[in-house]
Amino acid sequence: MDSKTLNVLEYPKILQQLAGFCDFSASMDLARALEPTSSFELATARIAETSEARKLLSMQSTGVGAAHDIRPQADLAARGGVLDPHALLDVKSTLIACRDLKKAFEKRNDEYPRLTQAAQGLPDTHGLVDAITRILSDRGEILDSASPKLGEIRRSLRVAQDRLMSRLQKYVTDSKTVSMLQEPIVTQRDGRYVIPLRAEFKGKIKSIIHDQSSSGATLFVEPLPVVEANNQIRELQLAERDEERRILTEVSVQVGEHVTELKYGVENLAVLDLAFAKAKYAEQLHASEPILHPAVEDKKQTVPARTWSIVRLLNARHPLLDPNNVVPIDVDPAPGTRAIVITGPNTGGKTVSLKTVGLLVVMAQSGLHIPAQSGSELPCFHSVWADIGDEQSIEQSLSTFSGHITNIIRILKKMDSQSLVIFDELGSGTDPQEGAAIARAILVHLLESGAMTLVATHYPELKTFAHGTEGVVNASLEFDIKTLRPTYKLTLGLPGRSNALLIAQKLGLPQTIIDFAKAEINPLDLRADKLLDDIRKERNRTSREREKLEKARAKLEAQTRELEKRLEKIEDERRETLAKARAEGELEVAVLKQNMDSLKSQLKKAKQPLEAIKAIEEKIEKMEEKVETPVERRQTTDHGPSLIQLGERVTVSSLNAEGLVTALGESDAEIQIGTLRVRARLSDLVRMSGKPKSEEKQKTAAGSARSTVVTPSKSPGMEVDLRGLMAEDALDKLERYMEQAFLSGLPFVRIIHGKGTGKLRQAVREALRGHEYVSSFEEGGSTEGGEGVTVAKMKSG
Predict the structure, then answer these.
(1) How far is the C-alpha of 498 from the C-alpha of 485, rounded, in Å?
(2) Who's near 111: CB < 8 A, 6+ residues apart?
(3) How far apart are CA 34 and CA 1, in angstroms?
(4) For 691-705, what is the mean pLDDT?
(5) pLDDT surpasses 60 at 385
(6) Nearest by Cα to 241 from 411, 436, 81, 82
């Protein structure tokens, strides 16, 4: 792409902002050097890469961490140089970032193919991370454990320093020598430990003078008795330095051995970081992925213009302007449009509109998302050319017109049929009549070349040319006469008006002058302006009505979605209620069957006729039929059970069990029986103060055999809790409970023994195995207590 055009479009500012989102210098360099490509395949690959990075960052926080551009360090190590601790730490942090990213993209090739391909080029650690960690702390200090020799040297050095300090301390604390010292301290000069001796006591302490104060009042001396100790410390310090350098050299050699892979890895890491930077920049701009179309290589090919020359920008914004203040524009010309001629007042936004289109094209072909509505489409141009701004030059003796023409000539020589050409104020800066003729001739030449063209002008001749020429469309930027300010709204299909007379009149120019000026203007031109004004008003009214309809449609759709959600919720609740009612009905029928079987057994034993319970059996069969059909809501009865209240204790007649009312419906209630919750019809409930209806039914069913029939025992409840009992006591309690449960006709019981060590559970299940009252047993469900509960199914009486 033409560098001058990129500068005119302010593309370098975009790259500078993009570089601000990069995490290390290598990717910043890539961002600043990013150029748009004319290759459709490369441009679409870059855009897809940005989209992948944006998708990834929306799901998880990912980045290059504390990576650095370690290529200079790798080159130095490869040449035999020794890396300092901080350089090695940079290598370590970069390799850790590469390792983490490589791991993050493992098995994600299908989801992020382009990012995964870049991640596969990241280097392996080759043990360098462990090697650097073994010798360096996080602050870059060489550890004592870096080598056995270094550890031994440092231990010896500490011992020698302690001995020396102990001997020098005697001079500082001895009453005979302390008075000779300027201060009772031990300090260093030239790497040797000394004491500050007052100058007047020179020679009183046999010593070597290493330095003196600026005033000469203090001499820094090394007493002769500690010279050898100082020498030993110095030797150990030199040995420590040599060993540290040997260690650093050893690790640097390992880095140098992998220089090629490390440099290639940094390049791939920069590619990934640039992709993440493009994604972050897109998020900041609230940008969307553009749809690119390939350019046609041969104009003779029979390809519809709509498939490749389409420029369709919806709510496009200039990326360098404040998004809270910028007015978005729509550029969506009809198929086959090859040129757009924009007219309007000065400072109305013509130049910004031109730059917006050009800059978004360049951004898209650089792989960036563009600040426009999703669904915006652009062709992949071979080149982009722009002449915008004042091209006058004092040094080259060029006027504004000459500067523009010089640049236009350069562009016309290099552009082709797949170029985008942008001209601001075409033909300006000279005689209006000649300027308009030149502008029209240039526009004709561009149309014949096949290039896509955007032109901003004040010449009315170009408005007329655009209106009467196929493939050319007028566009204008609106101006608010009431406020005398531009609205910056771009309108395709209508030329702009100068509004000079109206503006002058609003600003107070005498009416006589206004009338005289109108008389000088061709009446047809005035009539055309009036028609344009009427058309614009009508379009604005239509646009407002369309916006109202869109809002109403959006509101209606939202209400429809809300109603659908509510209906789905109601349907789910209805199905759940029916399923629950059916399950409760099945349980109720099963309990009644058990009671009937028990009663029949007892009547047989008593040798009494069974006709008395046939009517009850018929009722049970009817109940079973009802259970198999959908449950319908019943009206609340007006007899006794309607007086039942929440929290009241009742007896469930069919279960012969007592419980607490926890919820009330129109025709049923939820009863808490121990740890179980069951639903029962209100007609099946008896208040604790009333007489259980089950007893009355049993007496009626038995008839005259009252004296010989044994009625079922009172229910001991649906569960028994054995927790906290010894095994022997628990089994005794269980046996008594099982007998009562069998006699009361319960279909099943829950035995709570807890989890614990499992001994009580094992004893209980051993007792149930082969028990005379138990047909089978199983572990409780997840909502019943799991392995801490055993559910036993009782035999019928």
Answers:
(1) 13
(2) none
(3) 11
(4) 39
(5) yes
(6) 82
750 φ, ψ (degrees, to nearest 5): -110, 125
Burial of residue 161 (CB within 10 Å: 0-12, 13-18, 19+) is: middle
**Does pLDDT of 92 surpass 60?**
yes
The rounded distance, in Å, linking the Cα atoms of 525 and 495 is: 13
The whole-angstrom distance between residue 612's C-alpha and the CA centroid of its chain comes to 73
- Whether pLDDT at 91 is above 80: yes
- Whether the CB-CB separation of 370 and 47 falls below 8 Å is answered with no
The residue type found at 445 is H
Distance CA 303, CA 719 (A): 82
Distant-in-sequence, close-in-space partners of 648: CB < 8 Å, separation ≥ 6: 660, 661, 687, 688
Using DSSP's 3-state secondary structure scheme, residue 657 falls into: strand
Q: What is the DSSP letter of 415?
A: -
**Per-residue tokens: 755:** 């989890």
Q: State the burial class of residue 14 (Cβ atoms within 10 Å of its Cβ: 0-12, 13-18, 19+).
A: buried
Q: List phi, psi (to 5°) of 81.
A: -75, 160
Greater model confidence, 757 or 160 = 160
Give the span between the Cα atoms of 286 and 780, in whole angstroms. 55
3-state secondary structure of 321: coil
Read off φ and ψ for residue 142, nearest 5 degrees. Answer: -75, 125
Least confident of 65-69, 313-317, 344-348, 699-703: 699-703
**Element of type H or E holding 293:** strand 291-293
* C-alpha to C-alpha distance for 627 and 195, rounded to whole angstroms: 106
Residues near 302 by beta carbon (within 8 Å), at least 6 away in sequence:
none
Name every residue whose Cβ is closer than 8 Å to that of residue 428 and which is 6 or more positions away in sequence. Answer: 400, 401, 404, 435, 457, 458
Q: Yes or no: say if 701 and 613 are a contact pair by the CB < 8 Å rule.
A: yes
